[in-house]
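Retro notes (design track)

What went well: tokenization of the new backbones is finally stable.
What didn't: we kept losing track of which sequence belonged to which structure.
Fix going forward: every design gets posted as structure first, then sequence, in one message. First example under the new rule, 180 residues:
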């Protein structure tokens, strides 16, 4: 073949390229499992704090190879995170971000009261298990002639839900404690 000929890749080159692409996608997907992302065993494992970034610690003398890795960035308390998911697990989730501690649910209508629906925004605010480490906002709407209208939520509803999350987090922490 000369330079003036048509430079269309052959069918075998196309198949090889496609195979390499598929292999790369499979490897990257299996890497998620290797990193512990998406493991079903995570639910059985002990909760661990989650961090956003990792960086190499290069604080050693010049010319030395210090390859220790340390966590950098905000973390959320794993007990509060797990307790939050356990507490509102019956609601459909729109977003649950363990790095920022934000959980947002979709609207949910209880079967017993189909004329009203609820939505929750939950924020895990701290890396320690503290009483002020979680904030909950509950939204409520009622059906009026086929239109969903915002309705009031009892003032104590948010704090009751926060207390439920905190109680569950304490239970998880006690379960995690080593036997005496």
């Amino acid at each position: 073949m000369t330079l003036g000929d048509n430079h269309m890749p052959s069918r075998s080159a196309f198949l090889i390229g496609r195979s390499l692409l598929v292999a790369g996608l499979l490897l990257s997907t299996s890497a998620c499992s290797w990193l512990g992302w998406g493991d079903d065993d995570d639910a059985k494992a002990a909760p661990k704090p989650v961090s956003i970034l990792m960086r190499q610690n290069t604080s050693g003398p010049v010319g030395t190879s210090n390859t220790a890795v340390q966590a950098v960035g905000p973390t959320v308390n794993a007990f509060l995170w797990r307790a939050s998911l356990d507490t509102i697990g019956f609601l459909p989730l729109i977003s649950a971000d363990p790095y920022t501690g934000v959980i947002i649910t979709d609207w949910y209508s209880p079967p017993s009261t189909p004329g009203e629906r609820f939505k929750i925004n939950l924020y895990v605010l701290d890396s320690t298990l503290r009483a002020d480490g979680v904030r909950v906002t509950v939204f409520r709407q009622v059906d009026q002639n086929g239109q969903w209208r915002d309705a009031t939520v009892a003032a104590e509803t948010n704090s009751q839900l926060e207390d439920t999350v905190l109680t569950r987090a304490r239970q998880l922490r006690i379960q995690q404690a080593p036997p005496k």
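Added context from the reviewer: Residues 11-34 form the longest helix (24 residues).
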